[in-house]
C-alpha cells in the first residue's frame, strides 16, 4: 500500500545503495525485492542455528522508529541484546502468563512492538491488539476480552478520565496499568474513578541504556 509513495524516489534510493523490499503481489520495477515471492518459495524447515544466531549480541537486530526525544525523528538501532531484554518487561512490572494484555499503541514504536508484543511473548501472556485506541469502547473491550493489564501512554489515561461517566465503568477485571507519561492529577483521577488498579509508571528511550520504574506508586 505504501509503495506508490516510495516509487518516485526509487532511482535516488538505489543510487545510494538502499534496497527496497515490498510485501505484496506486484509487479514491481527492477531492483525492488518482492518479499511475497520469497516467502512463498521459502522452506518451512528451520535453518541450522549457526545461520540465524547472531555472532555478537551487540550487533543490530532491527531499526525502529523513534519520534525524536534525542533530535529529529529517525530509525534508531536496536541490538539483539536489547530486544531480548524487552522479553522481561511485563515480568518486571508484575504481570504473568495468566494475564490478558490490552495493546492499542502503534507497533512501529518500541513501546508497542518490543515492550508490548515481545513482552507478552516473554511471559506467555495473551495479547489483545486494538487497531486504534477508543476511549468510549475501552471498558467494553476490557470486559469482553477479560483484560487484566493495560499498556498506556499518558494521554490514553487522560482520554479515559475525560469520558462522560457511564454505568458499570468500575465493573472490570483490570488490575494493572503500565506505561509512560502519566501526570499526577490524571493518575489520581484514574484511580478514584475506575477503582484499585495498580499503576506502574516507567520511563525509557529507544536509544537509551537505562529504564526507570516507579514501583512505589
From TrEMBL:
<comment type="similarity">
    <text>Belongs to the ATP-dependent AMP-binding enzyme family.</text>
</comment>
<dbReference type="InterPro" id="IPR000873">
    <property type="entry name" value="AMP-dep_synth/lig_dom"/>
</dbReference>
<dbReference type="GO" id="GO:0005789">
    <property type="term" value="C:endoplasmic reticulum membrane"/>
</dbReference>
<protein>
    <recommendedName>
        <fullName>Long-chain-fatty-acid--CoA ligase</fullName>
    </recommendedName>
</protein>
<keyword id="KW-0436">Ligase</keyword>
<dbReference type="GO" id="GO:0004467">
    <property type="term" value="F:long-chain fatty acid-CoA ligase activity"/>
</dbReference>
<dbReference type="InterPro" id="IPR020845">
    <property type="entry name" value="AMP-binding_CS"/>
</dbReference>
<feature type="domain" description="AMP-dependent synthetase/ligase">
    <location>
        <begin position="42"/>
        <end position="211"/>
    </location>
</feature>
<dbReference type="GO" id="GO:0005886">
    <property type="term" value="C:plasma membrane"/>
</dbReference>
<keyword id="KW-0443">Lipid metabolism</keyword>
<dbReference type="InterPro" id="IPR042099">
    <property type="entry name" value="ANL_N_sf"/>
</dbReference>
<dbReference type="Pfam" id="PF00501">
    <property type="entry name" value="AMP-binding"/>
</dbReference>
Amino acid at each position: 500500500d505504501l509503495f506508490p509513495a516510495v516509487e518516485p524516489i526509487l532511482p535516488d534510493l538505489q543510487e545510494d545503495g538502499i534496497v527496497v523490499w515490498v510485501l505484496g503481489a506486484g509487479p514491481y520495477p527492477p531492483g525492488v525485492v518482492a518479499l511475497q515471492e520469497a516467502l512463498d518459495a521459502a522452506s518451512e524447515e528451520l535453518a541450522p542455528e549457526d545461520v540465524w544466531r547472531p555472532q555478537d549480541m551487540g550487533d543490530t537486530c532491527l531499526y525502529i522508529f523513534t519520534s525524536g526525544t534525542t533530535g529529529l525523528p529517525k530509525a534508531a538501532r536496536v541490538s539483539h541484546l536489547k530486544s531480548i531484554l524487552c522479553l522481561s518487561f511485563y515480568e518486571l512490572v508484575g504481570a504473568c502468563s495468566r494475564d490478558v494484555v490490552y495493546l492499542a499503541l502503534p507497533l512501529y514504536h518500541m513501546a508497542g512492538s518490543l515492550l508490548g508484543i515481545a513482552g507478552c511473548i516473554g511471559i506467555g501472556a495473551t495479547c489483545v491488539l486494538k487497531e486504534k485506541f477508543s476511549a468510549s469502547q475501552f471498558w467494553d473491550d476490557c470486559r469482553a476480552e477479560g483484560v487484566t493489564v493495560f499498556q498506556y501512554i499518558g494521554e490514553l489515561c487522560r482520554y479515559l478520565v475525560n469520558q462522560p461517566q457511564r454505568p458499570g465503568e468500575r465493573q472490570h477485571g483490570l488490575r494493572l496499568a503500565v506505561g509512560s507519561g502519566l501526570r499526577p492529577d490524571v493518575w489520581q483521577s484514574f484511580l478514584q474513578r475506575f477503582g484499585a488498579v495498580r499503576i506502574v509508571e516507567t520511563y525509557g528511550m529507544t536509544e537509551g541504556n537505562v529504564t526507570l520504574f516507579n514501583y512505589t506508586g
